[in-house]
Amino acid sequence: MSLTKIVRKVFEPRQRELLKHDTQAAELQQKVLADLLAKAKDTEYGRNHLFGAAKGYDDFIKHTPINTYEELKGDIDRMRHGESGILWPGKVKWYAKSSGTTNDKSKFIPVSPEGLKHLHYCGGRDSVAWYLQNNPKSRLFDGRALILGGSHAPNYNLPGSLVGDLSAILIENINPLVNLVRVPKKQTALISDFEIKRERIAREAMNKNVTNISGVPSWMMSVLTCMMEITGKKHLEEVWPNIEVFFHGGVAFTPYRKQYEQLITSPNMHYMETYNASEGFFGIQNDPTDKSMMLMLDYGVFYEFIPMDEFDKENPTIVPIWGVEQGKNYAMVISTACGLWRYILGDTVKFTSTNPYKFVITGRTKHFINAFGEELIVDNAEQGLAYACQKTGAEVSEYTAAPVFMDDNAKCRHQWLIEFAKAPADIKEFEQLLDNKLQELNSDYEAKRYKDITLQHLDIVVARQGLFNEWMKLRGKLGGQNKVPRLSNSREHIDVLLHLNK
Predict the structure, then answer these.
(1) pLDDT reported for residue 406
(2) Cβ(379)–Cβ(461) under 8 Å?
(3) CA-based nearest residue to 269, from 243, 290, 289, 249
(4) Residue 240 in contact with residue 210, Cβ under 8 Å?
(5) CA torsion, ordered 251, 253, 255, 259, to nearest 10 deg
(6) How far, in Å, CA of 116 to CA of 95, rounded?
(7) For the whole model, what pTM was predicted?
(8) In angstroms, rounded to a whole number, what is the distance separating the alpha carbons of residues 209 and 146?
(9) Residue 25 · residue 322 · CB < 8 Å
(10) Positive or negative, the Cα torsion across 350, 320, 293, 489?
(11) 438-452 residue pLDDT tens
(12) Is 322 helix (H, G, I), strand (E, B) or coil?
């Protein structure tokens, strides 16, 4: 008998519970907030902000400010040095190292035992629950899972305390039974040098019956490409005939989809997007015909949202889930079972439905170009590139874009640096298609492009193969959950890349 048929029954109670997301969104979130406040009322932060007296959402926001990492950094550093009961009860031993802020190279996000259980592992469980529900013929558990992870290191040399990629923390604390159905072995998964690790992963996994893979699309493609070179095969199903699903997240899948579809030609292959970050697990694509994700409302995270057109205001409107509007761009704010309180996550989302609450990620609060009032966001960029690729047959591996504030001819424009997996026959045609599509998608960009008065036609610089990986390696960010910044209002990143591209 198929092991998947047996395991499937384990997920059935949770599959029924997930139906509450369709009809009881506000109730689920109010319960989460009440639980968070009750657990944290005796922490230093909870006492200072009157958690114990809060009767609901209105009391909570009255006494608790909106926070960036900078506001919480001092408390987090005390926690990292071993102090207990600061932002969350007890000592927090694990810290996910994430992309830095303006003032620091890295952020260190607390990961409490409750956070592991009620945020991160819940997301993995529910991804499988929905996948099995949507695919009654699945044999997911009849083979192995290839799960990519980063690495970790001791935290201030405190016993048992770790800092590193979230994925490494998850692997370190995972139920030992899961290790029976996953590859690579733990020692390999936690190697810090990605170039060494990817070959070892490829060699360990290529002779296993892998049915599912999980990870960031860019780094997973690097591992799979390495394995294809070792085996001499052309298509992944020649190595793993029973491969059926890729659970992906971390970066937008659009630039990578065509590469995966060329590598995996099996009609039985599925792709399922997840929204998991160092701060928590927030969304799952529960319907394969709909690219938007379900906002997960009964984990240890309470959500609030700031309309992006008010984001820079001194007193912006801030709404809970029951106050959001469909089609509006929001910055996400979270309070979690890891001790992040009204924390500006840095991601922007747009709801495609409010019954149930489904959304797409539109970009980052800092990853956009608005040098000339054009308000170009990552979602625009992804759609524009997808359109230009479709029309020309090109494939994009990596890209970044930034403004040219004024060139030698007093012209302002956007400059794109693109590494192609398959370059277009005519780069000028690709430029024109991208520029036209961006104008169609974004009325502000269109207005600034009018008659080339404010903003001139974008230009594309073609990056040599491997440029972005080389740059990430130089920054110590090769592999794991590290991401290439897509859009920037400054030329900090693109100028370095252009210098390396010479």
Answers:
(1) 66
(2) no
(3) 243
(4) yes
(5) 120
(6) 11
(7) 0.80
(8) 10
(9) yes
(10) positive
(11) 999 887 788 788 788
(12) helix
> Starting from the edge strand earliest in sequence, which strands make up the sheet with 106-111, in order?
106-111, 94-99, 162-164, 152-154
Question: Per DSSP, what are the bridge partners of residue 247?
Answer: 214, 272
**DSSP-derived secondary structure for 11-60:** HHHHHHHTTHHHH-HHHHHHHHHHHHHHHHTTSHHHHHTTGGG--SHHHH
Choose the weakest-confidence range: 47-51, 120-124, 475-479. Answer: 475-479
Backbone angles phi, psi at 189, to 5 degrees: -60, -30
The 10s digit of each residue's pLDDT in 410-439 is 578 999 999 999 999 999 999 999 999 999
Kindly report, residue by residue over 86-107, the tens digit of the pLDDT.
Answer: 999 999 999 998 765 544 557 8
Q: Can you tell me the distance from the alpha carbon of 218 to that of 216, in angstroms, rounded to the nearest whole number?
A: 6
Place of tokens 């048929």: 5
Run of H or E residues at 295: strand 293-295
Q: Choose among 144, 160, 152: nearest CA to 90.
A: 160
Distances (CA, A) of 359 to 27, 45, 89, 307: 19, 31, 32, 14
Are 300 and 337 spatial neighbours (Cβ–Cβ below 8 Å)? yes
Answer whether 92's CB lies under 8 Å from 82's CB: no
